[in-house]
Automatic annotation (TrEMBL):
The gene is INPP4B. PROSITE patterns: C2. This is phosphatidylinositol-3,4-bisphosphate 4-phosphatase. Residues 1-124 form the C2 domain. Keywords: Hydrolase, Lipid metabolism. GO terms for molecular function: phosphatidylinositol-3,4-bisphosphate 4-phosphatase activity.
Length: 864
């Protein structure tokens, strides 16, 4: 109906205003109040920008109704017009302006009056405080705007299997001790802030712009559940270490020390989780809490922002961006740098501590984790399939028997292939040598790691007689027995089916029931049960041995990691948690925006989606550490995949985020997505520092970190485009007015990346343009996603209005200043620090590129 189309917003203008002094024109602004229908009193909730020295001001900012007072035909609105004599007071607080202003007049109208107006506007006379004198008029216009896609994102399930494993069946998911399953119940957007503007186009017409900023409950729900899973996983590791059995005193002491460290991590995470459970009613972490211990896993100031544009010459368009503080361990600090530097230094130092354990490379420990994950997945699956085989035999179902045997053969062969890895054999030898009483012939403990031998002095061992030396061929026989058992099962099934076929002769229809009845339904099962039981026993035996061997590898890795490795892993967990929450939020926002776009969905399942992170951090002082943390956190997102339904894949190298969709949306998806094909994300990070600290870094310091990050991520972006162009017709990509070829944009970006130019923000502009052209997710970050981020987001929005919607060039600066003064970003500042000022001072801004400087009166140095 007409009321629902109104959309709770309208622009304003005034005519013939009279200033208090005859020798000047008024600096006009309008305060908007809603009359509470229950309590019958005014509720002030919004005001326009100040238009200086103009008796006929046209306000660019429109007015939206607050969510607690939605518009209805009966809604009464009061408009009060002021002459703000001293505009500089705006730097203190907009609301204080009213105390330094003179009242010009007021008028009241109902929404119903505006809805019924034939020309979609009301011209109201302003009455002075005495209700008699006419002080000009205020014009309320009704400009229609298409409905916003404000979809609540409900019941988002995030499934992140431990050690990079995707679960392949409900049974495996339930039985695997390493499964991770995050359920983000009722994840939705909250606390919307909406601003409406009207800007003039090049042909002197008007476009309507709606800017909406919201919080997302994923800010808290994903980190909380991730913490729970980290706790469960570490508890499982402790249990695995206990189950290693008796070890010599040296190794037993190392085990106890490692278990103590895991216990400390578990205790710390439990304490953090308990503190987070106490937090209620919040959906974002303000910048002033970025270094708070209990909130360190929560992304800083995470918000979604959507700009919706309606203009006469083009269909409606939406532009989305996610703003978040740099994913970094702010509580832990940056005195020694961030993750990139700390991890590099740690890998070099770790070898020097290997005297007390066997040094395994990161590749070997990663392989051990993969073997453990594969076994935890395949062992219960093989058991289940073996039971299905026996059930098919019980029912004498030839088809069921063949199908179950094929699946059982595939999974068992996968397991055997995993167990044949040389690392498993060498680790078993090392574990045997670490048990009490083992002394080799040369009176030294010798372990084989990969293809190399590592010897340890006898002083680390017990001086008691040695027992029988370990037979290296014993393990080969063990996994080979699994293969032999499988062969026996296959042979028995073939025999049963062959015998059954040989007995089948043409049977008259009237005798068929008697033939079926004469079969002994349990006969097949009785013959098949012994080899199947033996297969299950052999699988259980080798899995138990291999699990202990791989746990021993991880014990040595953990022992070499005390204490620095544990601390670094906690730091990495913190940073990844923040980055993952932001990515999940952006993915869901993008998915719902493009759910009807078949080209986007095709791109999504054939290639994947770019997630482009823009960073404005400097390469100086603490922000170097933040950038190093952020680089590692964004890089870790490469292991993340999304699926719209349960994935059926053998890929063991990624985290998986599951996003169930409502039935109506799900039915329109391509079959590949509905079948659960994993959807890849390609995170890329581009950084250009813009503040005064970056000036110091460029003149006297080192910006190699920034240069390396930009070059590396340009190569990732270029590789993504190449893959996309090979698999998806480029006409499936969104259409933009600026038809610069993406390949040409990439060439320009590549040139800018290698060009030695100070504060080359064109890198960010071009990368952002490419991301949008590629249907990607856009993220913008600085330290707190509050000040520099606000400058970047508003600049990007106005650039889009100019390039895509013919914003009049004379309105560009006005539009930019208007968004920075009155828009969602200044509201973001208010939410974070309870002050409507960007945290810059005039000296800092002198170092900023001009287009990143806020308008006068909107900034002042405050604690952030």
């Amino acid at each position: 109906n007409e009321d629902s189309e109104f959309h709770s917003s309208f622009p304003l203008s005034c005519n013939d205003l009279v200033a208090s002094g005859r020798d000047r024109k008024p600096n006009a602004l309008v305060q908007v109040s809603v009359i509470d229908p229950h309590k019958q009193h005014l509720v002030s909730h919004a005001c326009t920008e100040i238009v200086e020295a103009n008796k006929d001001p046209l306000f660019l900012t429109g007015v939206t109704f607050p969510s607690e007072y939605p518009a209805s035909p009966e809604t009464l609105v009061k408009l009060t017009v002021y002459d703000a004599k001293d505009k500089s007071q705006e730097s203190v607080s907009k609301w204080l302006i009213f105390f330094c202003s003179s009242l010009l007049g007021s008028a009241t109208f109902s929404v119903g009056d505006l809805l019924k107006a034939k020309d979609e506007r009301l011209t109201l006379s302003l009455r002075s405080s005495d209700g008699v004198c006419t002080a000009g008029t205020v014009v309320v216009s009704r400009l229609k705007m298409g409905e916003m896609e404000e979809v609540d994102v409900d019941h988002i399930t995030t499934d992140i299997p431990s050690q990079k494993v995707k679960q392949q069946s409900d049974q495996a998911k339930q039985e695997s001790p390493c499964s991770r399953c995050l359920v983000c119940s009722n994840a939705r957007i909250r606390n919307p802030v909406c601003k409406v503007y009207r800007f003039q186009t090049v042909d002197s017409k008007w476009m309507l712009v709606r800017e909406q900023m919201e919080e997302c409950t994923l800010s808290f729900s994903i980190p909380k559940q991730l913490l729970s899973l980290y706790i469960q996983e570490d508890m499982s590791r402790v249990q695995d270490l206990r189950e290693l059995g008796d070890l010599s005193p040296h190794w037993d002491n190392l085990r106890k020390e490692v278990m103590t460290r895991y216990g400390e991590t578990i205790s710390s995470y439990q304490e953090t989780l308990a503190e987070l459970d106490k937090v209620t009613g919040r959906s974002f972490k303000p910048s002033c809490c970025k270094a708070q211990k209990s909130l360190e896993f929560i992304p800083i100031n995470l918000h979604t922002q959507r700009m919706r544009v309606t203009c006469p010459r083009k269909t409606d368009a939406c532009y989305d961006i996610v703003t978040v503080g740099a994913p970094a361990a702010h509580f832990q600090g940056f005195k020694c740098g961030g993750l990139q530097r700390l991890l590099s230094r740690y890998e070099g130092e770790k070898k020097s501590t290997a005297y007390q354990c066997i040094y395994y490379s990161p590749e070997h420990t990663a392989k051990a984790q993969e073997v453990l994950s594969t076994m935890s997945l395949l062992q219960p699956l093989i058991t289940s399939l073996a039971d299905q085989l026996l059930q098919a035999a019980q029912e004498r179902s030839s088809t069921g028997l063949r199908d179950a045997l094929k699946s059982l053969s595939d999974k068992t062969e996968n397991l055997v292939h995993t167990l044949k890895d040389e690392l498993v054999k060498s680790a078993l030898l090392a574990l045997h040598a670490a048990q009490p009483g083992y002394v080799s012939k040369n009176q030294k403990q010798t372990a084989v790691q990969g293809g190399e031998s590592v010897s340890f002095p006898l002083k680390h061992q017990d001086s008691i007689p040695h027992h029988k030396e370990y037979d290296e061929e014993e393990w080969d026989r063990a996994w080979a027995n699994v293969a032999k058992c499988l062969t026996c099962v296959i042979a028995m099934v073939d025999k049963l089916l062959e015998d059954d076929n040989s007995k089948q002769e043409p049977v008259p229809e009237q005798q068929l029931a008697d033939v079926i009845t004469s079969h002994n339904l349990g006969e097949w099962r009785e013959q098949l049960c012994p080899p199947v039981t033996r297969l299950k026993e052999c699988v259980m035996e080798v899995v138990e041995k291999a699990k202990k061997a791989m746990t021993f590898v991880l014990l040595q890795e953990a022992a070499c990691s005390i204490p620095q490795g544990f601390l670094l892993q906690q730091r990495r967990d913190v940073v990844f948690s923040q980055a993952l929450a932001a990515l999940a939020c952006g993915f869901i926002m993008k998915l719902y925006a493009g759910i009807q776009d078949k080209g986007f969905l095709r791109q999504l399942h054939l290639v994947g989606m770019v997630a482009q992170f823009e960073s404005l951090l400097s390469t100086y002082s603490e922000e170097i550490g933040m950038l190093e943390d952020m680089e590692t956190g964004i890089s870790d997102l490469q292991r993340v995949m999304f699926k719209i339904t349960e994935a059926k894949t053998d890929d063991l190298d990624h985290f998986t985020v599951e996003v169930p969709l409502p039935r109506l949306f799900f039915q329109n998806l391509p079959e590949e997505i509905k079948e659960g094909k994993p959807l890849r994300v390609f995170p890329v990070l581009f950084n250009v520092g813009i503040n005064e600290q970056q000036t110091i870094a460029e003149r006297f310091g080192d910006i190699s970190l920034q240069e390396r990050i930009n070059q590396k991520n340009f190569e990732i972006l270029e590789a993504y485009y190449k893959s996309l162009s090979e698999k998806v017709p480029l006409e499936c990509l969104p259409c933009f007015q600026t038809q610069t070829d993406i390949k040409e944009l990439l060439e320009t970006l590549g040139q800018n990346v290698i060009t030695k130019k100070r504060k080359n923000v064109e890198i960010l502009w071009i990368a952002g343009t490419i991301c949008r052209r590629l249907n990607g997710i856009r993220f913008t970050s600085c330290k707190s996603a509050k000040d520099r981020t606000s400058m970047s987001v508003t600049l990007e929005q106005c650039a889009l209005l100019r390039d895509e919607h013919q914003l009049n060039k004379d309105f560009f600066i006005r539009a930019l200043d208007c968004m920075r003064r009155e828009g969602c970003r200044i509201e973001n500042v208010q939410k974070n620090i309870r002050c409507r000022k960007y945290a810059f001072n005039i000296l800092q801004l002198m170092a900023f590129p001009k287009c990143y400087r806020p308008p006068e009166g909107t900034y002042g140095k405050v604690d952030s």
